[in-house]
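May I ask for whichever protein you like with its backbone structure tokens?
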Amino acid sequence: MAPNDSAQTTGVTADEAGGTVVGRRKAARYVVPVAVAAVAAATIGLVPALADSGDPELPEITAQQLVEKIAASDQQQLSGMLKISTDLGIPSFGGLVDSFVPGGTGGGDTSGAAPEAKLTELASGTHTLRIAADGPDRQSLSVLDKGSEYSVVHNGADVWAYDSGSDEVYHQRAEGGSGDHHTAGKAVPGTPKEMAEKALAAVGDTTSVTVDGTARVAGRDAYQLLIKPKQSGSTIGSIRVAVDAEHGVPLKFTLAPSGGGKAVVDAGFTRVDFGKPDASAFSFTPPKGARVTEADELTADMHEKGSAFEKGPAFEKELAQLGGGPGAVNVIGEGWSAVAEIDGGGSAEGLTGDGAAGLPAEAQGFLGSFGDKVTGGFGTGTVFKTRLVNALLTEDGKVYVGAVTKDTLVKVAESAR
């Protein structure tokens, strides 16, 4: 298919690309080291390049034209299966989420089927997803793992989530509850389109973007867009996006680390159909005997009883130190080597050493399993490591975080003093 020359390159924000059915809660601050990966995707420069010859043979296209094709794509209907593998080099989020997020085992009388907790599990391991979409008001997603199924169905004003393992149902309507039902149409995490749009959200001079041949993905002809940082010090080696040659929809997204080894994120369709999905894909009736939790009732109950965090003074100091307090954020550098400096407003004692004793065991294991003590012009601190994002927490409560190497992080912290 000939390139869409009339398309214009547009940035796509993370808000457009995703969101949870219900709002994030304070507990999310505990995963600050991995929540700001978007810093690494800043500033992408478009370098025109002709596609290499490959199989299948497709018309030549430049990187600029291919990015425009992605931006112009407005495919409203599709269905299929995709596989997502994530290896951040950290423990599974499962136990951590259960301890902190309402809806987990430590969250009190809440719904274990709430998407905010269940979909976080996609941040580690390998998962098979079945998805379908028919316009902005009808989407469904099912996570098929280990003989059980977790599904989220958005149909008009209703959002249903069902966990077959616990036989729990979560229901939300637009007229009430703790979120906008339209976010359900955006909250399809792990899709190649969502990931590609985040990577292409900003443009600049720090990145090389080229077309690197062609491929067959899920039986479809695709161009391969290769995104590589020009700067040193990043934990990201490259991002490869397979783009459907006809529709401009990203079919596969692979993020390779600069340190080598298996991909940090590898998400791609194994089967895809761009026709209108069957209406049954967006139909849901709670199974007989299942426990049903209404979002508005859940929100009212939480306000009345208070969550585990609101009742647990042992956590207040630690929560404030991860982005709370003054909350000042300063971005140091640009592009792939950008680092966010966050002023926590106090000592980091509560999150390191003996001060961590007040945290749940899962949180202590999470922090301690990938923390390294470091020293420098900033004094002493701890670097919390993943294969993608590293974070340095100093003794005076400042946090430096970015998709950069440990050495780069320490140098940035020293230069900031």
Observations:
- Residues 52 and 376 are 47 Å apart (CA to CA).
- The chain has two domains: 14-301, 313-415.
- Residues 295-305 form the longest helix (11 residues).
- The first strand starts at residue 77 and ends at 86.
